[in-house]
Write a structure and sequence with these properties.
Layout lengths: L1 E5 L9 H16 L3 E8 L18 H12 L6 E5 L4 E4 L2 H9 L3 E5 L6 H6 L3 E5 L4 H7 L11 E4 L18 E3 L19 E6 L7 E3 L2 E3 L2 H5 L5 H5 L3 E6 L5 H9 L3 E3 L1 H4 L3 H9 L3 E4 L3 H5 L7 H8 L4 E4 L12 E4 L2 H13 L1 H16 L1 H12 L3
Parallel strand pairs: 1-2, 1-5, 2-3, 5-6, 6-7, 7-8, 9-12, 9-14, 12-13, 14-15, 15-16
Antiparallel strand pairs: 3-4, 10-11
Helix pairs in contact: 1-10, 12-14, 14-15
C-alpha cells in the first residue's frame, strides 16, 4: 500500500519546524508499513542560492535542502520536485510519479499545494489536508479563492470546524478532524530539565488579516501583544525564536522592555535537527496562537506543541477551543494574562509531574501510530 503526500517543503528551506510537518506524516506512515512518496513543486522565481540571490533550479538551495533532508531520513528515493509546471523534474521522474500515484491508496495534498492536474487525476482519492484552519474556508466563503476544488475528502487540524459555536465556515464540505501526528521514535523523552519557556513562531506569517462577518480576524502578533507582560509578571525566563522583521520597532521595543529574550530562528531552528534540539533543550513551551484561530474557536493545536509534549516538555497553550484534550497536567491552557501567569506557576510548582503528563498526552493523542491509522480509516483507506 502506498500513500502519496504533496506539500511545500522545498519552497521554504531552512525552516526546521515547517520541514517536520511533512516528515511526521512520511515517517509515521512508513513506520506503519506504507510505501510513501513526497511530491513538491517549485516555480521560476522561487529558487535561490544560500545568499538569497536567484539560482537555477538544479543549483538552488531549495532543491539541495530537500534532497539532504530526505536522504538523511531514509527517504532518498521517495521524493520528486516538479519545476516550472513539470518542465523539469528532480528525484522520481514525472512518469513514475504518475504511475505510483495511480497505484496509491490516496494522495494527501497539504493546503492544496500540488496543482498538477495529470497527477491529481491519477490519484484514486484526492485528500485536502488543512493545516491553517480558517483562512482557506473564509477565502472561499468571500469568493476570493477556492483551495479545495478538485478534492474528494477534507482533513483539518481545526478540531472544531462544524461545531455550532465554531465560526470557521464549513463552505458546504464535510471536514474530518485530525490531530497533528508526531513520530515518537524521532522525539524521545528528555530526562534533564531545560532552563526556560520557549517557542518557535512567526510574528505575522504568510497571510493577511481577514475581514469576515463584521470582524477583523488577525494573526499571532495581535494575540501576542496581549501577553507582553508575561515574563515580568511570572518571574520566569521566556525565550522565543521569533521570525520578526527588524522594522517592527513598535513590537520589538516592548518585547525587550518586558523581558522577552529573542533569538534568530535561522540560527536555532534552521533545519529539522537543530529545531528538534532547540525544543528538547527547553523546559516548556509557551504557545500563543493566531488571532483567527482564537476568535473562531477553531480547535487548532500546533504541530510544534505536539513535539514539545512528546519530548516530555509541558505546554502552556492559548485556548483555541481544545475540546477532547486533557488540560491541567502536561498541557495547561489559558485565555487571559492572569491565567497564563497562573499556568507558569503551576508548571514550575511540580515540573516533574507535568513533564510525565506531557509525554503521556503525546502518546495517547498525538502519536503517529494512533493518529494516522484513525485518519486512514476515516478516509476509507485500509
Amino acid at each position: 500500500m502506498r500513500i502519496v503526500l504533496a506539500g511545500s517543503l522545498a519552497q521554504r528551506p531552512f525552516i526546521g519546524g515547517h520541514t517536520w510537518v511533512f516528515l511526521q506524516y512520511l515517517l509515521g506512515l512508513r513506520r506503519l508499513g506504507y510505501d510513501v512518496l513526497f511530491i513538491d513543486r517549485l516555480e521560476p522565481g522561487m529558487c535561490i542560492r544560500e545568499s538569497g540571490e536567484p539560482a537555477p533550479f538544479r543549483d538552488s538551495v531549495n532543491l539541495l535542502y530537500l534532497a539532504e533532508v530526505m536522504e538523511r531520513f531514509g527517504l532518498g528515493d521517495r521524493w520528486s520536485v516538479l519545476y516550472d509546471g513539470g518542465r523539469d523534474v528532480a528525484g522520481v521522474p514525472r512518469e513514475e510519479v504518475i504511475a505510483r500515484t495511480r497505484d496509491s491508496a490516496a494522495l494527501i495534498n497539504v493546503m492544496g499545494y500540488l496543482e498538477e492536474e495529470e497527477i491529481l487525476a491519477a490519484a484514486p482519492v484526492r485528500v485536502f489536508l488543512d493545516i491553517d484552519p480558517g483562512f482557506g474556508q473564509i477565502w472561499k466563503a468571500l469568493g476570493l479563492h477556492d483551495l479545495f476544488r478538485g478534492h474528494d475528502r477534507f482533513l483539518t487540524v481545526g478540531g472544531r470546524i462544524g461545531a455550532a459555536d465554531c465560526e470557521v465556515p464549513t463552505v458546504g464540505l464535510e471536514w474530518i478532524p485530525i490531530r497533528p501526528p508526531v513520530d515518537l521514535a524521532e522525539w524521545p523523552v528528555q530526562t534533564d530539565r531545560g532552563s526556560r519557556f520557549t517557542s518557535v513562531a512567526s510574528w505575522r506569517g504568510a497571510f493577511e488579516p481577514l475581514e469576515y462577518e463584521g470582524r477583523t480576524l488577525g494573526l499571532r502578533v495581535h494575540e501576542f501583544r496581549r501577553f507582553f507582560e508575561l515574563p515580568e509578571r511570572s518571574g520566569s525566563e521566556f525565550e522565543v525564536a521569533l521570525d520578526i522583521d527588524d522594522a517592527e520597532t513598535r513590537d520589538l521595543i516592548p518585547l525587550g522592555e518586558h523581558g522577552w529574550k529573542l533569538v534568530d530562528p535561522g540560527r536555532v531552528a534552521a533545519d529539522p535537527w537543530r529545531y528538534r534540539t532547540y525544543i528538547q533543550e527547553s523546559a516548556a513551551e509557551l504557545m500563543i496562537a493566531k488571532n483567527l484561530y482564537v476568535e473562531t474557536r477553531s480547535g487548532w493545536f500546533s504541530d510544534r506543541s505536539a513535539c514539545y509534549l512528546a519530548s516530555g516538555r509541558p505546554v502552556l497553550a492559548q485556548d483555541t477551543g481544545l475540546d477532547g484534550l486533557p488540560a491541567g497536567e502536561g498541557l495547561v491552557t489559558f485565555s487571559t494574562l492572569e491565567e497564563a501567569v497562573a499556568g507558569v506557576e503551576e508548571i514550575e510548582r511540580d515540573y516533574e509531574r507535568h513533564s510525565r503528563a506531557a509525554r503521556e498526552i503525546a502518546e495517547e493523542h498525538f502519536a503517529a501510530e494512533r493518529v494516522l491509522p484513525r485518519m486512514l480509516k476515516q478516509l476509507g483507506v485500509r
